[in-house]
Amino acid sequence: MSVTLKDVAQAARVSVSTASRALTGTGLTSERTQQRLTRIARELGYRPNPIARGLKTGQSRLVALLVHNLTNASFQVMAEVVQARLKALGYQMLLCIGGDDPEQESDTLTTLVDHRIDGLIVVPTGKNGPQLKALANDVPIVCLVRRDDATDLETVLADDPQGAYLGTRHLIELGHRRIGLIVGRQDTTSGRERLSGYVRALREADIAKDDTLIHAGHFEPETGATGARKLLDLPHPPSAIFVANHEATLGVLRVTAERNIAIPDDLSLLCYEDMPWFEWHRPAISIVDNGARDLANLAVDRLLHRMDKGNGKDGVREYRVGARLIKRDSCRQIDAPTSGKSAKPKSPPSKSSAARSSAAKSAKV
Amino acid sequence: MSVTLKDVAQAARVSVSTASRALTGTGLTSERTQQRLTRIARELGYRPNPIARGLKTGQSRLVALLVHNLTNASFQVMAEVVQARLKALGYQMLLCIGGDDPEQESDTLTTLVDHRIDGLIVVPTGKNGPQLKALANDVPIVCLVRRDDATDLETVLADDPQGAYLGTRHLIELGHRRIGLIVGRQDTTSGRERLSGYVRALREADIAKDDTLIHAGHFEPETGATGARKLLDLPHPPSAIFVANHEATLGVLRVTAERNIAIPDDLSLLCYEDMPWFEWHRPAISIVDNGARDLANLAVDRLLHRMDKGNGKDGVREYRVGARLIKRDSCRQIDAPTSGKSAKPKSPPSKSSAARSSAAKSAKV
DNA sequence: CGATAGACTGCAAACGATTGCAAAAAGCTA
DNA sequence: TAGCTTTTTGCAATCGTTTGCAGTCTATCG
User: Fold this and answer.
1) Cβ contact, residue pair A51, B60, below 8 Å
2) Is domain A161-289+324-362 classified as CATH 3.40.630.30?
């Protein structure tokens, strides 16, 4: 069907080996034949067959990215970054969706390695440590966003302890003392670390940790709904909720909408990881940004390094990418009942606050 | 490194060919050897090398999906559907992001075909017709969402004329006479067809088409912003805007927010294609749903058919998937100034309306 | 019992590239 | 021009499968 190296060689009246050497630019052919062959190849429209080449060389020029889903904006960004970087280097990205499901992850992993991918960036479920570890002997692997504790794979993580700390501190500085936390599964790195950041900020401010204010659950909108209901039904509900579980955000919003809770007047809301529309939402939603773009870039850097310099076990195994707070309009200053903290007023004067309340009422419809 | 067929054959003391036949289940081996070999293969952890197999058979068990981006919720859904369907059949999905950029599309296409993909579902930019057409000889291709007019490829389209018609009619039924339209590039099928649906609804209602109310532009948020400004700055601005260009939605929202325009009180807003958060937005945004899931499923059906039954030029070249209207809260009934149309009041009483206006003001901050 | 069909199996040639090794060609020195 | 080195080239094996063809074995039938 398509033009093969043999065709090119025949047309040029040289052997296939010479053709190969000329076209791959090994420098083992004379300048003249090289140029002649490149010309002929171009004229014939020759395109090397990566499959055949791969069989011989053991490389596929395929790099896989395995994420949980594509609804999460961070994963979207990462996919786009990884794709762009790899493409520039002549690799094709294989984007796989694992659904945070260990079985699917395991399946996909074997398929990928079967296909002799040259490298893999994976957001691990954390349940396939042994498999990942074994695979890492065959192919360079970099973990992203989550660590798989059963492995010692090179891992690029968001600075979740810091991010959660920053977010919590922000709320504290606004005068909140009862801060609800909705967070991810505690058997994941990110879940645990965000909780720890939250706790640290509380401790620093001498606020007692109240376990009834903490809701940990799966990475699903439903978790947010359940959590929000639980928190809001408390005898003494929180004045702010920190949704440190990205997927849960929609669930929380649903509940506040259902109950006509005005944000930020009745409740301050701080979320984790951006979504493109947070900025346009009214009120615009404040977030802790996990730096998805940086994470992806660093992961690619590390992977390329491994693919290039060998897949050995070198020194650094863990990289952290800084988180930062993006203040928008979903958190408000509250009148600190007793505390003597210096509180620069940040939210607009009462007029606006009143307007906001009525907005909340109108939303009842 | 890994276990090859040869190893299995040796362990079983048969020839490689027998091993191959036994394991691929050709039925050309005795029941006994077949079972024995499967057992041994399993024990040894043999996994066939798709590269080697591909070289011989010309198949890769790779199917590519080429979309513009991953921010568009429709593409997300499609990617997930396609991935799930293909995986169940033992194919790996290659997800590629083309950015609606002809050059990138062209690049990606050649790479994909080089990699001997078994099938391709593509949302074409429309600028690489000849190439697509040529490629279609080598590999089954199905176009999705957009048609490439320079080809006669099998294409699965949303019913955009109908969708735009439904949306526009909805607004008309609510009493709107001046309806702004923000729509995509007119050199794309979807762009043209949505415009035509809009026009048809207008004509049916005996409303004169006013070109100043129509803004066509690129598939980008910026288009929405520009369009919204243009429309709102009109001496006699529209009472409703139909954003029939999904990507433009955020831009429109930005402008309405900037200008404190209350939706739906000051302006009714109807959008095209869902986003997961439209439902949670206040007001929840009414949309015309393009049926992304159905589109993807149908595209997979058609592709599998081609891969299975041969890649010939059969009868039907174009499939349409119905659109439907999803009413939420961003469009309101307006007092028809003169028209005698029967108008069941749908929007809440004035009290709420007033509240909503003040909500708009509060958003100024 | 010998012939013959039918079921299995193995040999060897692909698939399209890469690559070690040795031969041929070219360049250089004397 | 012979002799030697240094390119440059070609042969052939190889990567791990699949598959046409021919050969072996068993069983069945006359």
Assistant:
1) yes
2) no
Q: Is the CB of A21 less than 7 A from some atom of nucleic acid strand C?
A: yes
pLDDT of res. A337: 53
Q: Is the pLDDT of residue B11 over 80?
A: yes
Bridge partners (DSSP) listed for residue A142: A121, A154
pLDDT tens column, B268-295 = 999 999 988 888 777 889 999 999 999 9
Give the mean pLDDT of B221-225. Answer: 93
Distances (CA, A) of A210 to A163, A193, A215, A337, B292: 20, 17, 11, 19, 44
Distance of residue B280 Cα from the nearest chain A Cα, in angstroms: 6
Give which of A114, A278, A330 to mutate to test B binding, by max B Cβ within 10 Å.
A114
Q: What is the pLDDT of residue B54?
A: 94
For the segment A88-97, what is each residue's pLDDT rounded down to a tens digit?
998 999 999 9
Nucleotides of D under 7 A from a protein CB: 7-12, 14-20
CATH for the A62-159+293-321 domain, from 3.40.50.2300, 1.10.1740.10, 3.40.50.740, 3.40.190.10: 3.40.50.2300
Q: Is pLDDT at B351 greater than 60 in this prediction?
A: no
Q: Which alpha helices (H) appear in chain A, and where do they start and end?
A: 5-12, 16-24, 31-44, 50-57, 73-88, 102-114, 129-138, 160-173, 189-204, 221-232, 249-258, 292-309, 350-362
Chain A neighbors of B76, CB-CB under 8 A: 70-71, 76
Residue closest to D13, CA→C1'?
A: A56
Nearest residue of A to residue B265, measured between CA atoms: A362
Q: Which nucleotide is nearest to A55 (CA to C1')?
A: D15
CATH architecture designation of domain B62-158+294-321: 3-Layer(aba) Sandwich (3.40)
- Interchain contact B348–A (C-beta under 8 A): yes
Q: Read off the pLDDT band of A27 (50, 70, 90).
A: confident
Q: How many CB atoms sit inside 10 A of residue B310's CB?
A: 9
